[in-house]
Amino acid sequence: MRIAITGSAGLIGTALVRSLRAGDTSRAGGPGDGHEIVRLVRRAPAAPGEVRWDPKRQQIDTAGLAGCDAVVHLAGAGVGDHRWTAAYKQEIRDSRVLGTRALATALAAMDAPPRVFVCGSAIGYYGDTGDRRTDESAPAGSGFLPEVCTAWEAAAKPAQEAGIRTVFARTGLVVARSGGAWGRLFPVFRLGLGGRLGDGSQYWSFISLDDHIAALRHLLDTEDLSGPVNLTAPEPVTNREVTAVMGRVLNRPTPFPVPAPVLRVALGEFAGDVLGSQRVIPRRLLDSGFVFRHPGITEAVRAAL
Hints:
By secondary structure, the chain is α/β, with parallel strands linked by helices.
């Protein structure tokens, strides 16, 4: 297949490109499936297979997308990369909504559009779910992140109306050593400075990087999947359990809990989401036959190492 990808230089995008190009002997597609990758970049193209786009100006070189069978949209400003000032919150929203709208509109206008549009989203859609098991049938929560996710997914409407199979990959916390939120946890725990956040009772819905990439490929290949699909492991765990596993796998003590008031001072508004609980279940992914390689938190952490 010829597959266009935004955010191809990020943690997930890099791993997805590698998988699609090289294949995987233990996953669908087999070795050497060698898909052709088109990278959407915000600068002038500097290599074969790069296509220029400018999401803020709603401009895309659709000629470079001709012949694409699929588009995977992963671009977006990092939620935890900066303190949530009013300006950065706007950047978080715009980077998702404007990019999705630009892509969906451009794809819908093509004479021969791709068959599938996999659009990144997040379990932030559900807000704080407490200890309630939550699947894709749940409504949107309240607050900044649910509002962003709702607008993000709504921006893909032109592609859906054009008959393009559109899937929203509602992603949980990706367990990876080299990036994302978990990438910042590993050095802290290696130094023996890790500990639970707040009282540690909040649920974390995680997924290993390997399973996340395999799930994205599953979304591309499974013709009857559309709409929201949660990309999380089958059994979310509490932050207290995560802390214990990180300490055990890395063979380090975990003596330093971070009190909620300290988190609120350090992180500002984002602390509410760090301390919030999301017990999200990948119901549709499981029902479609997907098999997790790392269903438990211990396996996921070990895989990241």
